[in-house]
Amino acid sequence: MKRLPHYLPSLLSAGLVFCLSVMQSPLPDSVMPQGLDKIAHLCMYAALAFVFSLDCRRDGCSTTAAFWFPLVAASLYGGAMELVQQYFFPPRTGEWADFIADIAGALTGAIIPLYIWHLRKKH
After folding, report:
1. Which of the chain's ends, N or C, has fewer CB atoms near its CB within 10 Å?
2. Tens of pLDDT along 58-77?
């Protein structure tokens, strides 16, 4: 991390993910369609990894680093958030399925910029 201001969007995204992760759902479990929370996890962590990947490239990271750093960081953040939910924000709970959705989202968010950069190289 050469210049912290390049990572401001990533930090704001991480803060938003934190807030969304610890707040109570406005819908009761009986009304929420099954699996909707997993899609929410996937989308949140895809966005987080995507933004972090773009910030890495803006900071001068190689394409490889701009894939792996966001993937690993967003995945670890997802695991940490599951533990934070479990132990510090009852009745929120940490779930393995949510953590897997977090990792899938992080992978998705880290792959999309690679694809975009690959397309740009071809032209």
Report:
1. C
2. 999 999 999 999 999 999 99
